[in-house]
Amino acid sequence: MGRAPSPTEPYSGDLFGEIHLAELTRSAAAPTVRDYFPGLTICAVASGAAAWLSDHYGVPVILLGLLVGLALNFAARDPRTHRGLDLASQQFLRIGIVLLGFQVSASQIMALGIGPFAALLAIMAIALAAALIAARLSRQSPFAGLLAGGATAICGASAALALYGVIGKERLGQAQFALTLVGVSMASALAMSLYPVIAAQLGLSDAQAGYLIGASIHDVGQAIGGAYDFSDTAGAYATIVKLARVTMLAPVVLLVSLWIGPAASNAARPAWRRLAVPWFITLFLAIVAVNSLIDLPAMTATTSLAASKAMLLLAVTATAMRSRTDLLLDLGWRATAPVAAASLASFAAALFFVMFGVSG
């Protein structure tokens, strides 16, 4: 006679047991395209809705992606969406950052000049220091200050996504990450409206206004758009200043990864792998090098920028959908202190250097 099944084993004649065995077999197998489909589909629909709203109402698309994703985060309770959402939140953001390299070249830094570029580095350092100090005073994690400061200093949501990939979920929860993204996007949108008006009230020249706006607004598109609202000359100069900040994305991410060390989940890996530059940063630098040495067609930059924005929007939306809104509410107002401090410090420092004539 055969052995009787134990109480904990699924009985083969039981329908539930057969379904349970099938689920175990499916989860152990390698994921297929079908496993990613539910999460990617709902993420694409939510991102498309955010893009439509942004196009019709003029609200920053990244901010709308965050809000729509948070509103639909109940969908992430279904385990079938997890693979697709995780793919979008992790790999799509890396692809978006890589494609951003087509917008950057070494000639942009050379066109800026040594003095203005040195001042730009000082502004970035001041923003980062202000965020770290604010995080400490408001009893937040230092990693929250690092994330907010880096995002403010470099290029907003793109930098936040890259830095969070190095910081890791073990050090900083997704709720704090999502709140930082919301704060950075809102601060950038507000700055786009206010900074050109402030520059005009102060009687700044086109070059001064372009430097002020390009050095202090977080998002690339909003920095350039805000400067063009002032004048075409200011817009052209702000483009150079802002893209010079973007060139610092790879060095800052590399320095942060070396400074804070590996996350707990990577501590057992060999030292050479823990200290290795993330693959997407390596590709970013490679594309910047190619773009600096070869005169690529203008369509390459335009197409890659559109693709980068799409990838980053999908990544932000997926991250918001995987965030818990109850944890966001628990964080309170103190969680926004690093972003606010970094934004104010960045503007004040940029205005200081503009007034003292180092803006080019």
UniProtKB/TrEMBL annotation:
UniProt subcellular location: Cell membrane
Pfam families for the chain: Cons_hypoth698
Entry's transmembrane regions: 36-53, 59-76, 117-137, 144-165, 177-198, 246-264, 276-294, 335-358
Keywords assigned: Cell membrane, Membrane, Transmembrane, Transmembrane helix
Membrane topology type: Multi-pass membrane protein
Coiled coil region boundaries: none
Major site of localization recorded for this protein: membrane
Family that this chain belongs to: Belongs to the UPF0324 family.
PANTHER family per the UniProt record, alphabetical: INNER MEMBRANE PROTEIN YEIH-RELATED (PTHR30106), UPF0324 INNER MEMBRANE PROTEIN YEIH (PTHR30106:SF2)
Protein name (record): Sulfate exporter family transporter
Organism of this sequence: Sphingopyxis jiangsuensis
